[in-house]
Design goal:
421 residues, alpha/beta, Rossmann fold, 16 helices, 41% helix
Amino acid sequence: MHAQFHCTGRRKFPAAFFYSLLNPLNSHTMFQEETIKIKQGYFGQFGGSFVPPVLEAPLARLSEAFYAAAQNPDFMEEYRYYLKHYVGRPSPLFYAERLSAQVGSKIYLKREDLNHTGAHKINNCLGQILLAKQMGAREIIAETGAGQHGVATATAAALFGIPCKIFMGSRDAQRQKLNVQRIKLLGAEIITTDQGTASLKDAVDVALGYYIGHPDSFYLLGSAVGPHPYPSMVHFFQSVIGTEARQQILEQEKRLPDSVFACVGGGSNAIGLFSGFMNDPAVEMYAAEGGGEGPGSGRTASTLVLGKPTVFQGTYSYCLTDENGEPVPAYSIASGLDYPGVGPEHAHLKETGRVSYNCITDTEAIDAFYLLSRLEGIIPAIESSHAVALAMKELKGKKALSIINLSGRGDKDVEREMENE
């Protein structure tokens, strides 16, 4: 079933909801005390819930369950337990001395690649799987592009013994064979699609289509996209990245960074890092989109640089569209960035000018992939390499203090001949 989600209005949610991220994980890791106002799931003019009627009640139940869980000390204690003892948080903040010398600025790497499963995705998956367990879910479904969210979801489902289906574009499955094998090993069923460009957008379409037909399933959405409450929920579970990074840089440098960098597809790792510095206007925030073959090539995934606001996959945000306002295929060498939409909070941050969104080409990302590997002995995911490439351009010779979110490790990309794709 093809699910574009351009239909049937928006679900009414409470006018405002306030919550704080609760209590320290340990003496070195603390959730930031943060208040987020949510009005019908909107960030400025962006967001909302544009879904078929069959999904309105399940999403309303999910919204209510999430808000209750976020305020429940028992739920948060269990979540913190698994972050510390299963994921291995806090993830380190590492001073990349040789990269810093090459660029001419002092650069730290937030090492999300060292999390269990090898990326930031597990932060959100554990939060949502605990919510699914609490709600009595009997089946987990999820989409994946680069495979990292698929692996993290399959991992969490195995941990709690819940059957799991992962939807993936067939082209991405070919590009990310290692993660496909990991998903299968973890006991999840993987369902590939040849629809469209057989990439992340199509995996989301098929997963949403399945959800329409099976509304009692728990859709564990991996990025800060889709209908409310997903963008707010993913922000909440990924905010541990920014909370830790803020505390760690203050411990190591005794001041806040001049800038922070992250890659953006749907935008979960970026919103996680940015959340820790959102209210610090002196900290500049930069996001690297998958530029593919360049902004004028027609083969790009640079949504916030080139796209327009529209309703896409259940939310009002930016999307790459044609002259008729219809979504067009995206392209990036990074499967996790190969997506024509973006989360509504990022659309709001673009409109307000709080974050600078930039186009990084395949070639620039590949160069950064090899450079970081050889300078620091750290092999980054090709998605994360986009953030490294942007930081190298923006920080050259500035003697600035900065943090790059290394959202995932590059094992999955090592066997690819990326220069020839």
